[in-house]
Amino acid sequence: MSMIKGFHHLTAGVGGAQQDVDFYVKLLGQSLVKKTVLFDGKDPIYHLYYGNASGDPGTLVTSFPFRQKGVKARAGSGQVKVINYSVPRDSLAFWRTRFEAMRVPHDPVVTERFAEKRQRFQHPCGIEFDLVETDFDARPACTNADIPERFAVRGVHSVTLSLREVSESIPFMSEVLDFRYVGQSGPYHRFETHAGGPGTVVEFIHEPDRQQGSTIYGEGTVHHVAFAVDSTQEQSALKSKLMGLGYIDTSESVDRNYFRSMYFKMPGGVIFEAATTDIGFAVDEAPGHFGEEFQLPPWLRDRKGELLSRLEPINT
Ligand SMILES: [Fe+2]
After folding, report:
1. Ligand 1 centroid to 4 CA: how many Å?
2. I need a surface site. Which of 78, 154, 167, 298 has the fewest CB within 10 A?
3. pTM for this structure?
4. How many domains does the chain contain in total?
């Protein structure tokens, strides 16, 4: 059985902070689970976490609004190409009407693969999303006043990785990360882990001619995919396994306040992370109050006013 239980979070570089909040919270009905900051020693950048109201791993997408720093990333292969969210069966018509009403760029037709209907739409920074209809996502709905529960997003369904070559990456998923190979559909290869289904699915799209994307943090790309592991013990067992098999491009375990992170690269170039589920968002805000206040790690708390004054004000 794989140590990886499914997704923990996906992290993207986006444009403006307010347009990002409007996309995840107003358009998609997700909750702002945490409002904090990335601090490189000179300039603060927001770190915004969205997910279901409890901030459950597998529902989380996090954003760095990089427009403020003027850093743009280059989309390409070796990256996440599409973030896929699950919605219940027969909900795509609701979402298409909503995209039209809210002027969200979206594809003219619904497509289907692996027997699932899907609707493509775009984040304002250009990152592509699909809503995927499924009967098999029992997670709580991400609702707001104008999104009925029967149509609401449940969480991350899967990620679609753009890869120039797949011959090393396919065995990496199954032999190193213990995912199961589900099958192939045209240029797509699908894998799943643990119990399978929404929240556990990784897809490759084989694009041999696509230019390599950048790996920096910047506006317009998903930077990495974080998978959920139970504890630092499991994280370190995974690191040892990677190192032992020759995948030596792994990080130490890093303290991210709400989880611990260990980063590694898969053969196709996508940055993966193993994030622990043993800490969580209740360390600085009580459940039911996640995302209400701007939170800083202990070493930055006395600079809260100064840091906030240098960030775009956001209305949540
Ligand atoms: Fe991460």
Report:
1. 15
2. 298
3. 0.97
4. 1
What's the 276 CA to ligand 1 centre distance in angstroms? 11
Place of tokens 């594809």: 107
* Residue 66 is assigned to a structural domain of this protein: yes
Count of CA atoms in the C-beta half-sphere (13 A) of 105: 8
What whole-number distance in Å separates Cα of residue 172 and Cα of residue 187?
Answer: 18
The pLDDT value given to residue 305: 92
Higher pLDDT, 285 or 297: 285
Q: Do the domain assignments include residue 315?
A: no
37 residue type, one letter: V
Q: Ligand 1 center to residue 79 CA distance, Å?
A: 14
Calculate how far, in angstroms, residue 100's C-alpha sits from the geometric centre of ligand 1.
32
Q: Which of 94, 89, 184, 92 is nearest to 134 (CA)?
A: 89
The answer, yes or no, to whether residue 40 has pLDDT greater than 80, is no
Q: How far is CA 242 from CA 57, 80, 236, 250, in A?
A: 23, 21, 10, 8
Residue 13 lies in a domain: yes
Q: pLDDT band for 118, please (50, 70, 90 cuts).
A: very high
Is 120 inside any structural domain? Answer: yes
* Residues 183-240: tens digit of each pLDDT: 999 999 999 999 999 999 999 999 999 999 999 999 999 999 999 999 999 999 999 9
Residue 146 belongs to a domain with what CATH number? 3.10.180.10
CA distance 228 to 200: 10
- Domain residues for the domain of 38 are 7-309
- Residue 42: C-alpha distances to residues 45, 66, 92, 133, 307 (Å): 10, 14, 44, 43, 10
Q: Which helix (H) or strand (E) holds 12?
A: strand 7-14
Ligand 1 centroid from CA 12, angstroms: 9
